[in-house]
Automatic annotation (TrEMBL), chain A:
<feature type="domain" description="2Fe-2S ferredoxin-type">
    <location>
        <begin position="1"/>
        <end position="77"/>
    </location>
</feature>
<dbReference type="InterPro" id="IPR012675">
    <property type="entry name" value="Beta-grasp_dom_sf"/>
</dbReference>
<keyword id="KW-0479">Metal-binding</keyword>
<dbReference type="InterPro" id="IPR051452">
    <property type="entry name" value="Diverse_Oxidoreductases"/>
</dbReference>
<dbReference type="InterPro" id="IPR036010">
    <property type="entry name" value="2Fe-2S_ferredoxin-like_sf"/>
</dbReference>
<keyword id="KW-0560">Oxidoreductase</keyword>
<comment type="pathway">
    <text>Alkaloid degradation; nicotine degradation.</text>
</comment>
<dbReference type="InterPro" id="IPR001041">
    <property type="entry name" value="2Fe-2S_ferredoxin-type"/>
</dbReference>
<dbReference type="GO" id="GO:0046872">
    <property type="term" value="F:metal ion binding"/>
</dbReference>
<dbReference type="InterPro" id="IPR002888">
    <property type="entry name" value="2Fe-2S-bd"/>
</dbReference>
<keyword id="KW-0001">2Fe-2S</keyword>
<dbReference type="GO" id="GO:0016491">
    <property type="term" value="F:oxidoreductase activity"/>
</dbReference>
<dbReference type="GO" id="GO:0051537">
    <property type="term" value="F:2 iron, 2 sulfur cluster binding"/>
</dbReference>
<dbReference type="Pfam" id="PF00111">
    <property type="entry name" value="Fer2"/>
</dbReference>
<keyword id="KW-0411">Iron-sulfur</keyword>
<protein>
    <submittedName>
        <fullName>Carbon-monoxide dehydrogenase small subunit</fullName>
    </submittedName>
</protein>
<dbReference type="Pfam" id="PF01799">
    <property type="entry name" value="Fer2_2"/>
</dbReference>
Amino acid sequence: MRITVTVDGTKYTDEVEPRTLLVHHLREKLGKVGTVVGCDTSNCGACTVHLDGHSVKSCSVLAVQADGCEVTTVEGLARDGKLHPVQQAFHDNHALQCGFCTPGMIMQSIDLLADNPDPDEQAVREGLEGNLCRCTGYQNIVRAVRDAAKHMSPGAGPEAERIAENKHVGVGGD
Amino acid sequence: MTATIEPEVGKSRRRKEDERLITGRTRWTDNITLPGLLHMAILRSPFAHAKIVSIDTSAAKSASGVIAVYTAQDLDPDGAIGMPCAWPITPEMKAPRRPVLAAGTVNFAGEGVAVVVARSSAEAHDALEEIDVEYDELPVILDLEAAIADGAPLVHEDLGTNTSAVWKFDSAEAGTGGNVEDAISSSEVVLKRRFRQQRLVPAFMEPRACVVDPTSTQITMWSATQVPHILRVMSALTLGIPEHKLRVIAPDVGGGFGGKIGVLPEEMMSLLVAQKLGKPVKWNETRSETMLAAHHGRDQIQDITISATRDGRVTGLKVELLANLGAYNGLVGPGVPILGAFMFNAIYKIPAYHFACTNVYTTTTLTDAYRGAGRPEATFAIERIMDELAVELGVDPLELREKNWIKHEEFPFTTVCGLTYDSGNYEAATEKAKQLFDYDGLRAEQEKRRASKDKVQLGIGISTFTEMCGLAPSRVLGSLDMGAGGWEYASIRMLPTGKVEVTTGASAHGQGHETAWSQIVADQLGVAFEDVEILHGDTQSSHKGLDTYGSRSLVVGGIAIVKAAEKVVAKAKPIAAHLLECAEDDLEFAGGKFTVKGTGTSTTMGDVALATFFAHNLPDGVEPSLDSDATFDPENFSFPHGTHLCAAEVDTETGRIKLRSYVCVDDVGVAVNPLIVEGQVHGGLAQGIAQALFEGTEHDESGTLTTGTFADYLLPSAADLPSFTTDRTETPSTTNPLGAKGVGEAGTIASTPAVVNAVIDAVRPFGVNDIEMPLTPMRVWHAIQHGTTDAGGPGRDEAGGGLGSIDATGGAQ
Amino acid sequence: MIPAPFDYVRPSTVDEAVQALAAAGEDAKVLAGGQSLLPVLRMRLAAPTTLVDLGRVAELRGVREDGDTLVIGAMTTHYDVQRDALVAEHAALLKGATDTVADPQIRHRGTLGGAIAHADPAGDLLAPVLALDASLVVAGPSGRRTVPAADFFRDLFTTALAPDELLVEIRIPKHTGWRAHYEKFNRVTQAWSMVAVAVTVRTEAGVIEEARVALTNMGSTPVRASGVESALVGVQASADSIAAAASHAAEGTNPPVDGNADVEYRRHLAKVLTGRAIAAAAGA
């Protein structure tokens, strides 16, 4: 099936098998290897991206379901070389060690702050319950999210991620 | 450079590693693609023990996109290849051949039986379903005690037994202490307890993967491994590939925790298949495969006997372990329980000690290193039994520990195992922890809740630990029959423009070595932190090393860097003196500058590097190079220690546990980067707490792993853990120039008994003196109600929750 | 892992969807939010030949009022149910339970209809739907029919839906102003409910006038705890009266046994959690 997905501001049209998971489409067809697969059962959240402005586990979305939609991955966050406040906060607060869960953790953190711009510790922990980390014990991640909240303007949610210019990259084959 | 530069060591530097990781510019093994890359998928046995009657791969071979399908018959027709075990703990240790693919018999559910090579991963997995294997089931051996009983069915017929090895240490025989039987028989108080260390899954977030490119000048293997150097030499030995024709790269690796210490059948398969086809191949496992095929951790039955005087002085400790190896010997699997052998006596002065471990085969996934590797098991046993002893004697558990521990003034102290702990200050760490924890306040609250029979009871758990890390003095490894040394390597290259390139044999997978090593080099050479580049993980560039595990990278690898840097300075000094036209002895080196004593005349390390590069004006006989390397073999293990205090609330109506607070004061000597140290402690605590409360594999009676996904094997999320209060004391190590001690495993080692002790403490008034891990709500509730320790197990009914079954007709999903 | 291959149909209306399902035959599956189905497909526990994706059937999304009834389209996501003002006002129990489902990412995609049709006995939305006396509107080749929740859940993962039928609407009688609480008990936050209790009550001056109580994972389907319900009528909410009523919670149940809970423990939990849920709902 032919689908068109806008990923990090660029439109991609491709022929895909219906069974192709969005995460595999991103990684293997579009070269967006920043988003990773950590499990089979939708528990770990490492594959989290934004789909039309809301966080989703891209291992549990088919590429065909994303037809006509906008996807933002961790690779689409920085603007003109400037890190997103959540990315910066993760760095400042040592909220990552091996980094494998980090893209998903960052994407979900942004979503959680969009819904709740000033979360307390408990709200952050609950907002991240769909993202597993084996390295950090979560403490610095929680600190980072609350740190980022202080640096973000309120309501910077899905709209803030729409990019004005869409580049069409032609048709890829299978 | 100014003279007032702050030292880098001790700074909480933010990490150099982060930039790529937070922007998704990563190099996980699964990211790697090469022209014409083929994909491997492995068919795994559903049976825990069976003869393979036949394998029909014909249908699979003609499936869409399939290039080849191989079995053991194809890859190893002579049955000559055996996966390596580098630790034969006794001369008599059994060593069953572990084939790359099952040859004739499968010995655990998940063992590889055939491999499909196809143009895409999807097609490779599709073709697995076309392979027809006929099995004849054999008896399954799961229970440790049953496995060593007379007449037990055998995992490996040819061995004639399920006992792999028995390893003993006796302080009387070793001359390091008294006779434990005498001590036990003559003591006023003797306690015996059996504890169970459940089997765990290391569960690193990045599933394993491997890419082999046979088309480059050196065969190149990328692997999500902790041990690229060991993997290289072992692959060469195992497959007969000339070592100098093999290059191994650990690119970005997403966590390991010991679970990625291995030489894998899948890696060997990749090498064999790639060479056979002359094409690059990739193996990338799914999480379900990881759960089943990647090695598990822990899994011991511990029988512990402690003897003491009535006034609380420990007189003897006897440890008898049954350790589950699984179906085969892992790379270091047999040695894991032995690593704990010298840690049961822990921080205490115990006059007599005996340790015996029986390693046993069962028809399960093999076990091998997992964070702490032997030492968490040891610390758990001693810290649990110390609490039991305190109850028996009617004394406060902290007082009992203090009465028996090594006093600060007594260091260096040689223990009943013959290990010499270099330094420590258990008093200071404990005092700080007690204050941060409000120990007295919580004890008072506990009393109140007990008196009012509150439905929510409060317990306080203590764990005062030390551990032996920084693996390891090579001679000691030799005496333990470990098949490798314990040195580490570093080389420093001084570039003409004043920048520095460092290669390290350590292989980070989250530990922040690039940052911490840059700090060390910056201090040693007086160069800017930003001007140092750390190269690691590629045997072509960081060519020598023994990799990362056992909390060794800083205290062995970091010291190698220090030694190499000292050599650089030593080489630079005569050149500097020559340039400044003075005697070497007139020079002092500080802050990156060689200064003529008592004057303002100086030259920088950068100047010397450039001058060396030009080589126009060097002293006679001096090589035009400052580059230096060092291979450092530590003289002793590293002995960090700490005091961990846990307050646990137990809802006696439901058995639910809530961690009210967790305080730890750890002493890792001098901390190079306190931020990284704290992060390691946090992560270690999470894993240790998870062992106490959440994790544990389950097998059904046919040996099938029923906790085979993250839906069933429960890892905590942020919502399941509290915030930790962590602090440090700093008692420098006396056995290395940095004064540092290892930290990677400390949190995990200490925390499990702290949590379990807290819960038992909470429910002791109900007559409970043990509950087996994981302390599920049902187990806790049943313990309170019925005094059982291990309620629960595989279910009887098909239950809801998770994947369920949608074979049922009628039901649109 | 990667699912086995399947064909894919994306209808835009309910009629198209019903036709597509009929045309695709017995081994077709409906794709709603996909949060239960896709993991099953990835693990290759099922290999349907065709997926009928309801994702673009706009008429299946949304919450509206129809007189005394709240009508929720089957494809309404958990996220939308959580935030809907009508649900908060007229079916607070549903919002409370939906808050506990899985995690935020899964709630962005998962749907009420999908969860109900999947009928996992450990799923958190079945008991609330049962407790609220909902009716499920089903569309098939011969038109629409309405099934009361009490008849809809037949067995684990089995409902009254025929293979060629779709769940299109969930109709809930308005419980305006009723107080509610969903008490969930699991081992870790990501884990499925070991036992959970859905309670909604109508109170007047501290007296419980009406009560609805349903249990999650105390059987192969959700179960109404009618013994508790009748014990609560006309009762002044107090610790003792609640405990007395809650003691009926496990009556008539046949709880499953799994690694997390045996029969004795489940029955016990049902009583304790029912007491806590009533106390939270009734504000005692």
